[in-house]
Amino acid sequence: MLLLSATSDEDEREMNEVVVAAAWAAGGVNLAAALWGAWRWWQVEPSRVFWVLLRAGQAAALAFALLCGVLVLAGHKPDDGLFWVYVLVPIAVAFVAEQLRLASAQTVLDARGLEDASAVGGLPAADQRSVVLQIVRREMGVMALSAAAMAFLLVRAATTAAGF
To answer: Is the pTM of this model over 0.90?
Structure first.
């Protein structure tokens, strides 16, 4: 009996370590995306690296949530129900941010009195570049903020993962 109890405790510790490490990793990628995106937004310079980091952070948050789901199906669960908020809300944040990102282009077009994206083609080349840069900058700002929120939530998940 004692051997079974010790093995179970060891399994719980290992599962907890896996969950905590995965949460920190996902949070770290999102923090890197947030910081790099904020810097490039501040410099008013588009960045392919930002978009790669952002998508990696989103994928890491989804993989973390899937890992936690699999562990629950395997019979492991956290001590604190608040943990699930920190696991699932980052996915909702990413989804809402994508909707805001899509709306940001229309906001820029509306502010310039342009009907749609094809109307940008009728502008002089310098104005076209200005509109595109403004749209990309706004999108980067929205997504960098979402990455920062996701990083915070994932770090909170790491700190509330006890019991897995």
So the answer is: no
